[in-house]
């Protein structure tokens, strides 16, 4: 348990990020300009540092260096009033499309890990920013359900993947339709695990395990 069993290492890592985040919560009180500088420094750290840190499995300590900068960026982003920035929505979308196009060319012509990581970080952050700029007034009920079940889905999804790929239909898809298979597996695992967690949350004891 102290090393993070299988995919459950992430639960231990995110808990440690939460504890560390609470310990330095005062960073959210710094002026806006300094927050912007800090976010740029965090982005540079994400691109240049985590991939060179030796693996330390005990308590997933090396994972903190990889994931806490993302967590801290989230802490900073939670204090931004995106409602006042909606006028930049189209520009952000344009940047996303441009980066996606550059990413495709990069995957074809310049297959380097650090470049891929750079594109990945900025695409994720810009996508998050764009969603926040949409300023959706009210979420659909299925979105709220997915949000409440997301932790449980994470816990059970890996087990489902291991079981589904033993079924002949999925094995055939994996060998004959290598591009379609990940999409089918993703949809199947999401729906099934969502249903399992939703049902577990309706019961008294299972909800404390995977709910």
Automatic annotation (TrEMBL):
Q: Which GO terms describe its molecular function?
A: acyltransferase activity, transferring groups other than amino-acyl groups
Keyword entries, A-Z: Acyltransferase, Membrane, Transferase, Transmembrane, Transmembrane helix
InterPro entries in the record: Acyl_transf_3_dom (IPR002656)
Transmembrane segment boundaries: 6-24, 36-53, 65-85, 92-109, 115-133, 179-200
Query: Which residues are in the Acyltransferase domain?
Result: 3-191
What is the protein's name according to its record?
Answer: Acyltransferase family protein
> Could you tell me which species this protein originates from?
Segatella copri
